[in-house]
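sorry to bug you again but im stuck and you know this stuff better than me. what follows is a protein written twice so to speak, once as letters and once as structure tokens for the fold. mainly i need to know what kind of three dimensional shape the backbone takes. anything you notice is useful, everything is just below:
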Amino acid sequence: MADLSQAWRARHLTPGDSIGHTDTGGVDSHTEHVITLPPEHPLCALRDLWLSTPSSGAPLRLDLLCGRGEDPLLPEKILSREDAPFVSALTRFSTKRIQQLVAAPAPSAGVDLDEAVFLYLSNDGMAAWMLLLPPVGDGAAITAQRLEQALVRRGVIYGVDQRLLNQLPTLPERYFQLFLIASGAPPEPGTAGSIVDHYPRVPQVGIQVDELAQAA
């Protein structure tokens, strides 16, 4: 695999530049569930390096529904509230990856980075998304076990798409794609409990009398 650390330095940094001045970018546009990252976003820069197309000018569209169409567990009103915190977390993750790429002690030295996992949980904790970045140099590829460990560390135990989790490490087009890895139904308000008596609480014992008004 190409040395992305050297490629980043050559294409995006001039002598004296600092990674701290990298434009973190923002949201170019979005619908309720599709977020479009502008070309200057760090994740787009990482994608262009991986594809050997520096400064392609192409935005990156991420679908929170991941191609599922409508999902009854993820209504549009919930997804529309996730765009800003999602992009903020993704920007920090991508920027940190770039910092790792340029961390080589010398411009000619390469960097070995394992395949990276971005994991985002919705504000209500009812959905979790994954995005993978390719390894760099001699970095290790991801495994299903590592993905599961990442979920457990964030407290994601129920509602996991186990089939997708097992297939993800071997999917040919798994990089720079968003995957809905877990989802669940939010709790619904219950109704107040009540007690319905079908029998008298205090037994009514009747005394039977005969025609002389005497107890039988």
